[in-house]
Structure formats: C-alpha cells, structure tokens
Amino acid sequence: MFSLINPTRLHTQPQLLLDAHGEERLLLVVKGSFEFAGEVLRPTEAMIVLADQYHGDPSYTSLLDLAERLAGV
C-alpha cells in the first residue's frame, strides 16, 4: 500500500489501471481551477469527476461533465 502526500491545495485522485499488455500503471489525476479577480489569480473549488455526469437520464440527456480519467493507458 502506498501513501500519497499532497502538499498542495489541488485535488488528487490516484487510479490503478491496466495497460494494453495487462500490466498495472498508476495514474495520478491532479486538478486545479483558478479565476481572475481583477489582476489577482485565485484558486477555486474543482472536484475530480470519476464518472461521466449527465443532465438527467443518460439515455435522453446530454453530457454535463466528462470523467477525468483514461479508459486505458
């Protein structure tokens, strides 16, 4: 088991994936979001999306937010 030490205020999400040869690869998703307030750059809240999100029923509505991970490496 590993422990991720994140000294930043950015959100992180480690994910263990399999590559095309079936070997394990560790993917670390890091997300930061910022906004300009005049001439100042301020961090804003930005959560990591692990699954696609839709406006309603996925069969009938459009995509609201795309998952931030790769299907395969």
Sum up the structure in keywords.
73 residues; mainly beta; two-stranded antiparallel sheet
What does this structure look like?
With 73 residues, this protein is mainly β. It has one domain (11-65). Helix content is 0%, strand content 42%. A two-stranded antiparallel ribbon has the order 1-2. Strands 3-4 form a two-stranded antiparallel sheet. The mean pLDDT is 84.
Secondary structure layout plus pairing:
Blueprint: E1 11-18, E2 24-31, E3 33-37, E4 40-44, E5 53-54, E6 63-65
Antiparallel strand pairs: 1-2, 3-4, 5-6
As a whole number of angstroms, the C-alpha radius of gyration is 16 Å
Number of domains: 1
Give the overall shape, derived from the CA principal axes: flat
Strand tally is: 6
Main β-sheet, in a few words?
2 strands, antiparallel
- Report the span from N to C terminus: 21 Å
Topology as H/E string? Answer: EEEEEE
Q: What share of the residues lie within helices?
A: under 10%
- The spatial strand order of the largest sheet comes to 1-2
